[in-house]
Amino acid sequence: MTTLTKLQPAPVIDETARLLTEHYVFPEIAERLAGLLQRRLAEGAYDVDGAEELARLVTADLQSVNDDRHLRLKHHVDPVSPKQGAATLDSMRRDFDTSLGGAPRVELLGGGVAVVELAPMLFPLEWAAEPLSAALTLASRAQALIVDLRANRGGDPDAVAFVCSYLLDERTHLNTMYWRGGERSEQSWSQPHVPGACFGGSKPLYVLSSDSTFSAAEELAYDLQQLGRAVLVGERTRGGAHPCKGWTVHPHLEATVPIGRAINPVSGANWEGTGVQPDVPCAATEALDQAHALALARLAG
Fold first, then answer.
1. Of 240, 242, 221, 244, which Cα lies nearest the Cα of 291?
2. How many CB atoms are closer than 10 A to CB 145?
3. H, E, C per residue of the chain
4. Direct distance between the N- and C-terminal alpha carbons of the chain, in angstroms, rounded to an integer
5. Are 214 and 153 within 8 A, CB to CB?
6. Are strands 184-189 and 205-209 parallel, antiparallel or unpaired?
7. Angle, helices 27-42/51-62, rounded to nearest 10 degrees
8. Rounded mean pLDDT for each run of 10 residues along the chain, 301 residues in total
9. Cα(298)–Cα(279) distance, rounded to whole angstroms?
10. What does the longest C-alpha to C-alpha distance in the chain come to?
11. Whole-number Å distance between alpha carbons of 152 and 121
12. How far apart are CA 148 and CA 93, in angstroms?
């Protein structure tokens, strides 16, 4: 008979608290959260049998102070590599291989309006440049374009800039990222030259959103909206503007800790907590039809 070893929460909590204090973009909140985790551990709140339940409890506590949805203890069913970032990268690679590289749909609708769906993520640009370029080049001849981000849960800020480069005419400052490490800021700009053909910066552009649209997908919607380049149609997005890294703290648990925050050059703010507000609010299920109708009316006018 196999004897199951009871989960020991203390090493997981100790390491998660250490990662918070060393890396979280808001040091004062990190100290508060680390103290909260240790108090909860001492109270026996984390004395549970399974890693999945521990992940749920710790995540709720991590998000209890400032509702940072990037700040999590994430459960993985299969054992994950102890190498920093490997758990997230392995999961992303599986999604990349089953989603045509993150561009699962390119379709020409009636009236010369194209739709490009980017889902389930904006994958690392070294993987995704080719499929993104292929999809956007194919849609470049359309009279109007709809970019569907309703099922996109985030990804690579460099991929955001790459996509924007197909939708603008000039090199444009898109975002500034403040990183806690070194207390430095890094600007993100669209690229003046990209592979293939560009849709450009003058034809009608619509972006679809849902309450599941998150992180880098929100940045793409927000950047284009703030520049006045796109009309956002759908639902308010989830509200996560803090890029994060992941550390394996147990064979089935990964602590994801935000290490930076976004600062938009137009608004001077970001979408953390509030989400990106649509220009044309509607149910996500109706957003494509709404955007198509808006595009047709704009083209007719």
1. 221
2. 24
3. CCCCCCCCHHHHHHHHHHHHHHHCCCHHHHHHHHHHHHHHHHCCCCCCCCHHHHHHHHHHHHCCCCCCCCCEEEECCCCCCCCCCHHHHHHHHHHHHCCHHHCCEEEECHHHEEEEECCCCECCHHHHHHHHHHHHHHHCCCCEEEEECCCCCCECHHHHHHHHHCCCCCCCEEEEEEECHHHEEEEEECCCCCCCCCCCCCCCEEEEECCCCCCHHHHHHHHHHHCCCCEEEECCCCCCCCCEEEEEEECCEEEEEECEEEECCCCCCCCCCCCCCCCEECCHHHHHHHHHHHHHHHHHC
4. 75
5. yes
6. unpaired
7. 140
8. 64 97 95 97 94 96 94 92 80 91 97 98 96 98 98 95 97 95 90 95 98 96 98 97 92 94 94 96 98 98 87
9. 15
10. 75
11. 5
12. 21
Q: Which two tokens stand for residue 300?
A: 């007719």
Pair of tokens at residue 238: 């989830």
Query: Is the preceding peptide bond at 120 cis, omega within 30 degrees of 0?
Result: yes
- Tell me the pTM: 0.88
Q: What Rg value do the Cα atoms of the chain yield, rounded?
A: 21
Contact by Cβ (8 Å): 170, 189: no
20, two tokens = 């918070």
Separation CA 145–CA 35 (nearest Å): 49
